Task: inverse folding
């Protein structure tokens, strides 16, 4: 069967290759269809110093059908679902050809971290953040990298998990409504839904505040 | 096709001539007609005067002369005397085969394009250009003369003579895709020389082809397009594996052209595929009055006027409803069909229960397998003769055929106790009959196909022996007609159970049921005649056919009449409100 030979060969080649920075491992010695890929976040991006895990399922018709890949590590990126890790990348869909390999695909994923495509988003909320406030987006992405993609032993950081920061929301806004008696999680949920990350540059601040209040009252009924 | 040269390399090339030959098509599963000859073996019979853009019209006039029997759809013959009832003025339903579509939409465009003598373009190139430009030959001509270098590139072609697409056998080849190390294998490559083993190339194409789009080299950034001919050659090579003779496909059978045609047909709502299994033909709605057509569509949604149901014929003569895409479901209106199908899907588990309970003899409980379509069963063990539908003794309801009706009065007090059980039983009663006729249709089909074979073999045999007193086709001309009548009759019968399930009971519903009983009786009778002919113990099958000729003709005419009567009376009584549907 060609699939077995092919995957075995790909694994072997990946093992010998120390240049690309991409690693492939079988989840289980006896099963060639479930693998995990690893690579480092590209330097100069918010994903720097992160180690990202990709879960890989090989379809029966591999290599004629693309492998199914998703991020097992949580990541904040416009083309990757912040909830499921699903990836929006053409070579994993219609642009796949049997000449592409698991390694080349992982490298493409690494490249995707370097150059997001916010106009073809997988995660609309993240893409909106990216387009409206690039700096805020990058801070959040870096925060996620720190929280989720940094292994405990190679980094000494011991960050406190901050829910507002997770969604790139200015903590002051959350505090403001929390002080008014609204639960913290509800406040964050409403702010996410409304796409409000901070009051910076907002002219009609009190209007926006009223709208948030309205939503919160509805939510907490 | 196989050339051996000194280097022990074998290369495969085409022969222009091969285009012309067409291998005899296997007899279509669904084609139960005893067609003597294929009049359209020659592709050119579809051809028509150029310059005329109204393909549909041309096609029609052509098929009228070539395939008289095919355009004369059975609906206009049997059920509707006036076929214009079906549509608005100027509305036509045209049956097409995929081959015709390819000929008229693709190959005729190719022929026209050839007259422009585009410099340096092979037929392969022209086909690619045409498909790239969605078969608009004018656009190909314009872009070609505008900037032919650019156009060539866009199409994934290399100018003229430099193309070097190859099928060859090479030694010591490692295929990057399957990772096999071959001592010697067939490989394919385009001008770019990206070589992969034939198996992988075929697999790749087989995956890509369903999009119906042009297929490029496997290499991700390589834009060279694989010519249509190479694709079909590849299929031929794979299909004729281990055999010396490679049967080349004609352009009409070209896998990519077929896939592209399918894509185009799928994308237009004026085309509808025939729902019959194994049938790949479709019907086109050609409208001249759009607003009338739109009105008709919306009228159909909840209408009980079954005279408006657009029953059309496909190229293979199958009848189907152009509105909902199901087979001819008369006497049911489309909306009832939709409801019923939904219900059957929802209740499929209860329906399975029926299967488990209906496969034993009611007397001795031996399990019984049903082969043909006839519902007159004889238990192999105890010889008990019974009706497969109602499980009553066959002799008892032969004269007064009434196993269709659902009787509320059976075991009255028991049923009354549980209303919901009654509802279920009522549904099962109708569903069982509906599904039995569906199964019987398949059984009939099998029997009919065998009869078709037997008569053909017999005829061949006689002809080869040069027997003077042989049976001629005229003698069994009645057979195809009778076979179709049986099939269509049973189809109508099947749908009467859906109709009856939703029917509010009244004096007129009883008339409907009486018509249903009559139709049932004649359908079963004819089915039984055919099944007896094909009985294993009968060793003069053709003789039996001839002996029963009058009986078969009479029964098939009876079916037609009863079918027509049933539909006509349902149509009238629905319109004047004497028949009503009851929906909960
Ligand atoms: Zn291969
Ligand atoms: Zn190439
Ligand atoms: Zn058909
Ligand atoms: Zn319909
Ligand atoms: Zn028995
Ligand atoms: Zn019966």
Result:
């Amino acid at each position: 069967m060609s699939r077995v030979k092919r995957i075995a060969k790909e694994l072997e080649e990946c093992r010998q290759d120390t240049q690309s920075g991409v690693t492939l491992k079988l989840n289980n010695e006896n099963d060639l269809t479930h693998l995990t890929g690893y690579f480092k976040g590209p330097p100069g991006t918010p994903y720097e110093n992160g180690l990202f895990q990709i879960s890989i399922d090989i379809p029966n018709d591999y290599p004629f059908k693309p492998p199914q890949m998703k991020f097992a590590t949580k990541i904040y990126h416009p083309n990757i679902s912040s909830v499921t890790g699903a990836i929006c990348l053409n070579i994993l869909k219609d642009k796949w050809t049997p000449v592409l390999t698991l390694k080349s695909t992982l490298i493409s994923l690494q490249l995707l971290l370097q150059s997001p495509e916010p106009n073809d988003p997988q995660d609309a909320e993240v893409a909106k953040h990216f387009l409206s406030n690039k700096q805020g987006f990058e801070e959040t992405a870096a925060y996620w990298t720190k929280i989720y993609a940094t292994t405990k032993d190679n980094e000494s950081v011991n960050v406190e998990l901050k829910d507002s920061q997770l969604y790139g929301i200015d903590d002051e806004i959350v505090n403001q409504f929390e002080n008014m008696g609204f639960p913290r999680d509800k406040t964050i949920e409403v702010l996410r839904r409304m796409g409000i990350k901070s009051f910076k540059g907002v002219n009609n601040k009190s209007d926006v505040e009223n709208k948030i209040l309205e939503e919160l009252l509805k939510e907490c009924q | 096709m196989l050339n051996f040269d000194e280097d022990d390399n074998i290369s495969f090339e085409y022969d222009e001539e091969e285009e012309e030959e067409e291998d005899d098509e296997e007899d279509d599963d669904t084609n139960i007609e005893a067609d003597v000859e294929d009049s359209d073996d020659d592709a050119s019979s579809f051809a028509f005067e150029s310059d005329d853009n109204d393909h549909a019209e041309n096609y029609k006039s052509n098929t009228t002369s070539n395939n008289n029997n095919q355009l004369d759809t059975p609906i206009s013959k049997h059920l509707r005397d006036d076929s214009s009832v079906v549509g608005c003025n100027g509305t036509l339903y045209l049956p097409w085969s995929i081959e015709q579509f390819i000929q008229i939409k693709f190959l005729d465009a190719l022929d026209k394009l050839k007259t422009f003598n585009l410099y340096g373009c092979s037929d392969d190139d022209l086909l690619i250009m045409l498909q790239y430009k969605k078969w608009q030959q004018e656009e190909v001509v314009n872009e070609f003369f505008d900037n032919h270098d650019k156009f060539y590139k866009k199409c994934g072609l290399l100018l003229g003579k430099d193309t070097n697409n190859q099928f060859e056998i090479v030694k010591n080849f490692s295929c990057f895709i399957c990772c096999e190390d071959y001592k010697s294998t067939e490989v394919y490559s385009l001008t770019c020389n990206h070589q992969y083993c034939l198996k992988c190339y075929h697999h790749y194409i087989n995956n890509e082809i369903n999009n119906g789009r042009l297929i490029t080299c496997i290499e991700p950034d390589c834009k060279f397009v694989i010519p249509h001919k190479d694709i079909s050659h590849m299929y031929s090579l794979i299909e004729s594996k281990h055999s010396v003779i490679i049967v080349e496909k004609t352009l009409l059978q070209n896998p990519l052209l077929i896939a592209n045609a399918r894509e185009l047909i799928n994308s237009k709502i004026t085309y509808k595929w025939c729902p019959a299994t194994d049938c790949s033909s479709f019907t086109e709605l050609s409208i001249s009055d759009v607003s009338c057509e739109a009105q008709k569509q919306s009228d159909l949604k909840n209408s009980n006027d079954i005279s408006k149901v657009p029953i059309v014929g496909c190229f293979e003569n199958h009848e189907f409803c152009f509105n909902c895409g199901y087979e001819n479901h008369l006497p049911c209106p489309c909306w009832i069909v939709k409801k019923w199908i939904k219900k059957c899907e929802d209740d499929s588990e209860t329906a399975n229960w029926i299967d488990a309970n209906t496969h034993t003899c009611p007397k001795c409980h031996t399990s019984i397998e049903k082969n043909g379509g006839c519902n007159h069963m004889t238990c192999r063990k105890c010889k008990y003769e019974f009706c497969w539908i109602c499980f009553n003794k066959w002799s008892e309801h032969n004269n007064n055929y009434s196993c269709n009706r659902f009787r509320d009065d059976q075991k009255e007090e028991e049923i009354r106790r549980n209303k919901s059980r009654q509802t279920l039983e009522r549904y099962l009663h109708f569903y069982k009959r509906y599904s039995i006729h569906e199964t019987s249709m398949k059984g009939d089909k099998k029997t009919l196909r065998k009869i078709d074979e037997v008569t053909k073999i017999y005829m061949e045999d006689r002809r080869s022996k040069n027997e003077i007193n042989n049976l001629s086709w005229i003698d069994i001309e009645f057979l195809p007609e009778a076979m179709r009548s049986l099939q269509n009759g049973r189809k109508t019968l099947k749908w009467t159970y859906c109709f009856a399930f939703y029917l509010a009971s009244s004096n007129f519903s009883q008339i409907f049921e009486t018509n249903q009983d009559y139709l049932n009786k004649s359908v079963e009778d004819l089915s039984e005649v055919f099944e007896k002919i094909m009985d294993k113990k009968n060793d003069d099958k053709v003789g039996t056919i001839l002996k029963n000729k009058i009986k078969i003709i009479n029964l098939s005419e009876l079916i037609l009449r009863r079918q027509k009567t049933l539909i006509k009376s349902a149509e009238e009584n629905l319109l004047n409100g004497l028949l009503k549907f009851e929906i909960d």
